[in-house]
Amino acid sequence: MIEISEEPTESAEALQLFRDSVRAFLRDEWVPQQSRWRAQHRPDADAWTRAGAVGLLLPDVPEIFGGGGGTFAHEAVVLEELARAGVAFGNTVQSVVAHYLLAYGTDEQKRAWLPRMARGDLVAAMAMTEPDAGSDLQGISTSARRDGDAYVIHGSKTFVTNGWHAGLICVVVKTTPGSRAPRSLSLIMVETERLAGYRVGRTLAKIGRQGQDTCELSFDDVRVPAANLLGGTEGAGFAQLMEQLPYERLSVAVSAAASAEEAVASTIQYTKERSAFGKPLFELQNTRFVLAQCHSDAQVGRAFVDRCVQRFVEGRLDPMEAAMAKYWLTDCEHRVADACLQLHGGYGYMDEYPIAHRWADSRVQRIYSGANELMKEIIAWSL
């Protein structure tokens, strides 16, 4: 469990108080809504402003821009508590977009968008993947053509988390159409309100994370101000993505570690209460051995991810380590969730049991933010 901070004056006690407040909010307000959110394939619109009001959004963004003024340790607390509660919410994407703005946005853009994002008044999304391009970002075809003081964006995106409610989208585009060179990519911020040519497509039906909206988006010659180009220079998009993706990948790893721990804890409780062959399941040697392995895996993962968080807070986590964390922790999460579901027997496959949702929700973690096969390539490049 994360107990570190960037500031020497900040105590683990203060971080625990923040954790307690996040946990209480989720338990009292969001956990009871999960069945309904899953049925409608998205959270309620006011969930965003409620999250902002209690400090769940942008906890590691400076206070001058409306954030919580904390470190990534605070972001990790939110991620862990959401994972433990079994709540799939798009706060990670909100934070990822915020950090693109912090790193490359103008002061005017930061002051215009970040406070609203922290309050939940403005929901952000990241539009990278396309129907014909996933981990291979250089294969995207969505284009942005300069036309006077505007860019004209044309193309489509898919698997866009927060797409239904998004009012601000960081769109990965090609400003050199037809090229596969890294310098062909750029990032452009798109405000969606009353935007001609912009359309939200269908909400995609997924096997897991059903309470979190995932949409298709289309841009039919959408005009946005040229000043919305992040960094002010065309062709910087690939480098910007490579610089910021460790934040996203570490966020996924933190969530995976907490989810694996909760799967073990809930299954230990279940096997001690459920009987078979005249005694609790926990008294069967196979059950104890499986749980011993799962608990060991979860604890090894916890030690590694806490080290990665510490290094990130200190500014020392490199892309290879972030890739290692994302790959190993998400593989571990799904392996543990699968073993724990098996110990639940037929009940583990029932929708009413949390382990079923945890198992289904964990599967995509090995795919998004860069498929784990790509993570292994990144690790291999450093060897």
CATH superfamily of the largest domain: Butyryl-CoA Dehydrogenase, subunit A, domain 3
Order of helices and strands: HHHHHHEEEEEEEHEEHHHH
Helix content: 40-55%
Strand content: 5-15%
Q: Tell me the CATH topology of the largest domain.
A: Butyryl-CoA Dehydrogenase, subunit A, domain 3
Give the biggest sheet.
4 strands, antiparallel
Find the count of extended strands (DSSP E, 2+ residues): 9
What oligomeric assembly is this protein in? single chain
Mean pLDDT: 95
Structural class: alpha+beta
CATH architecture of the largest domain: Up-down Bundle
Helical region count?
11
Uncertain runs: 4-9
Report the principal-axis shape: globular
Rounded to the nearest angstrom, the distance between the terminal CA atoms is 30 Å
Strand order of the largest sheet: 2-3-7-6
**What gyration radius follows from the Cα positions, in whole Å?**
21 Å
CATH class of the largest domain: Mainly Alpha
**Tally of separate domains:** 3
Walk me through the structure.
The chain has 383 residues and is an alpha+beta fold. It folds into 3 domains: 12-93 and 108-117, Butyryl-Coa Dehydrogenase, subunit A, domain 1 (Orthogonal Bundle); 124-235, Butyryl-CoA Dehydrogenase, subunit A, domain 2 (Beta Barrel); 238-381, Butyryl-CoA Dehydrogenase, subunit A, domain 3 (Up-down Bundle). The chain has helices spanning 12-30, 34-40, 46-53, 72-85, 91-104, 107-119, 237-273, 285-313, 319-343, 354-363, 372-381; strands at residues 124-127, 143-147, 150-161, 168-174, 185-191, 198-203, 214-225, 275-276, 279-280. The strands form 3 sheets. The protein has a 4-stranded antiparallel sheet, with no helix packed on it. A hairpin with a 2-residue loop joins strand 2 (143-147) and strand 3.
